[in-house]
Amino acid sequence: MDNAQLDAMFSGIIGEQYQTLKLICPLAAKMSQLVAEAVDKFIVLQENPAIAILELGGGTGITTLGLLMAAEEAKVLSVDSEPTMQDQAKQSLQQWSSGQGRLSFDGRDALTVLKATETASVDIVASAYTLHNFLADYRAEVMTEIYRVLKPGGQFINGDRYGLDDISTHTRVIQNEVSAYFKALIAIDKLDILEHWIVHLFSDESENHVMRESVSLQQLAQAGFKDISLSHRCEVNALVVAVK
Ligand SMILES: C[S@@+](CC[C@H](N)C(=O)[O-])C[C@H]1O[C@@H](n2cnc3c(N)ncnc32)[C@H](O)[C@@H]1O
């Protein structure tokens, strides 16, 4: 796939030491909670809580765990194309996979899995910090497919990096983010991780990746979504919920 190089970054040092992200971006862990809370709100309104959740970019399992806790009767399919990341989730979430049988994994890329998923078969497509990694064209296809696989009334719930429309403010926010990386990682002598995150940030900020707020919300509307909301904005991070 086109973004293979990006994915490869996750299989190196970032994949193995992803926990360090919590140090430099505490909101990463909090965002998984926000996604889980949105799932919880959805469940409350359902007659049958045994819903089907498709998670894109499960990573080490932080978001997956939130989903499993929020939706205690749901079946979760967690997708991640990087084995280094998914293996950590498989290891730490065994009680839900082999134990309760509520969690399964797919190691293919998000678009391939979506294309192989039946139309109107999923209650929630949930994700955190994954879609911003996609190239814009790939992401556009993913959005269309997410809409197709959701049941009517189903929701797309995504906590992610949504670039600010005001480019000058956005640049200042990113500059502050870079400074915070240096402070946190030099303090614990993790210069190799620092290098990888700076390299990764260049991908995130490149023109063919950056997921600008207004463009993303328009894209959702064009795909057919309604009741589109962006909330909990903190710097470049925000929670987006959209209803089919
Ligand atoms: C930043 S991590 C987020 C993990 C987790 N959701 C969290 O918030 O901690 C993004 C994950 O998306 C995965 N990923 C990136 N591109 C993907 C794609 N096209 N298909 C499936 N997974 C992908 C990466 O391997 C990585 O594990």
Keywords:
52% helix, 244 residues, 12 helices, Rossmann fold, alpha/beta
Descriptive overview:
The chain is an alpha/beta fold. The protein has a single domain, classed as Rossmann fold, CATH 3.40.50.150. 52% of the residues lie in helices and 20% in strands. A seven-stranded mixed β-sheet has the order 3-2-1-4-5-7-6, with helices on both faces. Helix 10 packs antiparallel against helix 11. Residues 1-15 have low confidence and may be disordered. It binds S-adenosylmethionine. The site of S-adenosylmethionine has 22 residues, from helix 1, helix 4 and helix 5.
- So, CATH architecture? 3-Layer(aba) Sandwich
Q: What series of H and E elements makes up the topology?
A: HHHHEHEHHEHEHEHHHEE
Oligomer: single chain
| N-C termini distance | 28 Å
Query: What is the highest CATH level, the class?
Result: Alpha Beta
Q: What is the β-strand count?
A: 7
Radius of gyration: 17 Å
How would you briefly describe this protein structure?
Helix content is about 50%, strand content about 20%. It is an alpha/beta fold and about 240 residues long.
